[in-house]
Amino acid sequence: MKSKDIQVLINGQEFKAKEGELVIDIARRNGIFIPALCYEESLKPYGACRMCIVEIKNEGVKKKITTSCTLQAFDGLSIETDSEEVLKHRKVLLELYLAQAPNSSKLKELALRYGVNRTRFRQKIRDDDPLNNSCVLCGLCVRVCSEVMSAGVINFIGRGEKTRVNTPYFEQSELCLGCRACAEVCPTGAIEFRDDGDIRIAASWSNTKVELKKCSMCGKYYAPVKLDKKIDTLYYYKDRDDELRDMCPDCRRKAIARKMTLIAENEVEKYAK
Ligand code: SF4
Ligand code: FES
Question: What confidence tens digit (pLDDT) does each residue in 110-139 have?
Fold first, then answer.
């Protein structure tokens, strides 16, 4: 069923939206910044970090402060993203997260945006933390790995204060595709990968190693072999150009440009005859 067109007010400004759309998406689409640690568009909203809170200004609404990543828009909804109340809560949250992930420069940057440059809470520093004391346990890496990539390489380990994210028993994983999706979605920049010749090393995930594929043209190692095979099984198309498939993105672009030029030259020749 088609969603109804509605109007919402964000910080006193009117915006068009669809009924049921998430408020965080409407704000982002219109260039309004709402901080978020556990929201990622490709995954279902989770509502865990509370960083994205907003204040509802409509009369008769019971819960005035709520998470914008779970709030569904309705016609006439009016919210404020940085009201006094919101900022008060957000600053405390930032202090809590700074204590949990004291080494995350991304988090420090976000905190500074709200004038927070220190934390009153006890910092949880662990020696030899594979996530460099930068993880806020938002769970995005775990979810993207299982729900989007269907790989299930990492998970939460331990309980309470001892909870961490990593591979089971902190052992190297056979399942890792080396796709780096976890690092892409991590809001604190906690996850480290590095490429060493034909091997990609998931340094944060128990130094799991993944073989890389070589470009047939320039010889550069550019994509994990396992990921390439997975894409092949999922999106195999019979008319694919095998020559292009084994090239790195740079060489592929150049080869396509060459092919297009040849086609254009042939066409010109045909007309010239
Ligand atoms: S490593 Fe990053 S994405 Fe994973 S739980 Fe920690 S903060 Fe979230
Ligand atoms: S981003 Fe909304 S609760 Fe985490």
Answer: 999 999 999 999 987 888 899 999 999 999
Q: Is the CB of 52 under 6 A from ligand 1?
A: no
Residue 247 in contact with ligand 1 by CB distance below 6 A: no
> Tokens 């892409």 — which residue?
184
Q: What is the C-alpha to C-alpha distance for residues 238 and 260, in angstroms, rounded to an integer?
A: 21
pTM of the model: 0.89
Query: Is residue 237 scored above 70 in pLDDT?
Result: no
Q: Is residue 118 part of a domain?
A: no
The range of the structural domain enclosing residue 49 comes to 5-82
Mention every residue, 6+ apart, whose C-beta is less than 8 A from residue 91: 114, 115, 116
Q: How many domains does the chain have?
A: 2
Sign of the torsion formed by the C-alpha atoms of 183, 187, 190 and 194: positive
- Residue to mutate, 98, 137, 204, ligand 1, most ligand atoms under 8 Å from C-beta: 137
Query: CATH number, domain at 54?
Result: 3.10.20.740
Atom of ligand 2 nearest to the CA of 70: 2
Q: Which of 35, 38, 33 is nearest to 48 (CA)?
A: 38
What would the two tokens of residue 201 be? 């090393």
Q: Is residue 200 part of a domain?
A: yes
Residue with CA closest to ligand 1 atom 7: 135
Pocket test for ligand 2, best of 25, 26, 50 (most atoms within 8 A of CB): 50
Residue 216: band (very low, low, confident or very high) from pLDDT cuts 50, 70, 90? very high
